[in-house]
Amino acid sequence: MKPCLAPLSAALLGAGLLVTGLAATFAGHAQAPAPVQPVVLKAAHLFDGRSGRMVEPGTVVVQGERIVAVGANARVPDGARMIDLGDATLLPGFIDAHTHIADDHDDDWAAGIYNAMLRFPAEQAFHAQRNAKVTLDAGFTTIRVLGAGDFIDVALRNAIDAGYATGPRMIVAGHAIGSTGGHCDSAPYPVTRVVPSTPMEGVCNGAEQCREATRLQMKYGADVIKICASGGVLSESDPVDVPQLTPDELKAIVSEAHTWGRKVAAHAHGDRAARLAIDAGVDSIEHGSFLTAETLQLMKKKGVYLVPTRTTLLWTESKLAGYPPKIAGKAHAAYTSHEAMLRNAIRIGTPIALGTDAAVFPHGLNGREFGDYVDVGMSPAAALMTSSIGAATLLGVEKDTGTLEAGKAADVVAVPGNVLTDIRATERPVLVMKQGRLVRGGE
Ligand SMILES: [Zn+2]
Fold first, then answer.
1. I want to staple 266 with a disulfide (CB 3.0 to 4.6 A). Which of 88, 207, 277, 308 is the partner?
2. pLDDT of residue 292
């Protein structure tokens, strides 16, 4: 359906029936145990995601779900299963900090909305599972889901953790939160046709209602809170750059989320909207198309991450014909400004976490984001680090994953050749391992 345009209302889809069953919060890993035989991955090159340097040759020793040794001279345990990948690069499993895994891609904007409206949440959940599988096959062993209808993201996260479904480790937001008529208000239809969204579906007005919306998402399982601080591209009624939450609303959301130990991701194209969100204490700015150098400096000073979603800006620019004229105009304006903004961010040293907005483009193409950063002047090593240590830190999972180090989860990707001389190799993984289990390659 319409990613970043926010999910359809639960009322619209008659979805209340699913919610209580999905209310279980994160229950840890209850999957079948990983193989007990040690597995040794060997390749000509290894990029650990922390040092920024290439190690040659590369070895990763895996025992169960964990990495036990990494390096050129890592000791190979007796009886280990050897997987020699030849001229390839071993990397930490990729992390995408901005996806909409429960939404399907459709280049025909209107058809995408229509088709999504026809489905009950249970049916949409099967689509989400397919999207998660495709994303994992592309090498993304961890993703953040920034907005999904009907708590499908919570359900899928729990099912993956329980071993009932296949997909990346997921940090999920539930419904994205925003004001009436804003980018996160997914029901812009006459009230006689479609029931308007409420705080349960993320629409709120006034500090106390926004606090309630935040509490509701956390109550039903959100790991992170997503807000629409500015207008958006794929929504009908709003200007792309204007602020859509007041300082009081922003502060209520951020204080409530932070009290629960949850981070806040702010969708913001416009500079003034981003400034208000940063002043209120958000942890990341998503998209950032019109951010000024001054704001990017402020983000560096405060440690606020930029999540560029560059692949989406490029994709929408190449597909303008599929959008209504108003939306095509907004997409083009954002695209026109985004490249200079991203070059500024790289020059200034604003912290960047890799994130794509997958669903605006087909799931599974997430790896394009690496090359898209290099195309605007980032070094290949720095681009890889936006996913590894960068996104892991933003997501708060850096103690468990994001780098190839002893003790971390065995989340590993291998790509052909030397990734520092061919960054686009990230789009062609030959092996994917998640928590010690091979999900692609290694036969
Ligand atoms: Zn998005």
1. 277
2. 97
Ligand 1 midpoint to CA 342 (Å) = 17
Q: Compute, in angstroms, the gap from residue 82 CA to the centroid of ligand 1.
A: 40
Distance 347 CA to ligand 1 centre (A): 25
| Residue type, position 373, single letter | Y
Q: Tell me what pLDDT residue 65 has.
A: 96
pLDDT in tens, 143-158: 999 999 999 999 999 9
What the chain holds in terms of domains, given with CATH numbers, is: 10-29+94-395 (3.20.20.140), 39-92+404-440 (2.30.40.10)
Pick 220 or 8 by higher pLDDT. Answer: 220
Centroid of ligand 1 to alpha carbon of 77 (angstroms): 44
| pLDDT for position 240 | 79
What spacing in Å lies between the alpha carbon of 206 and ligand 1's midpoint?
23
From the CA of 4, how far away is ligand 1's center (Å)? 4
Separation of 266 CA from ligand 1 center, angstroms? Answer: 10
Question: Higher model confidence: residue 187 or residue 173?
Answer: 173
The model's pTM is 0.92
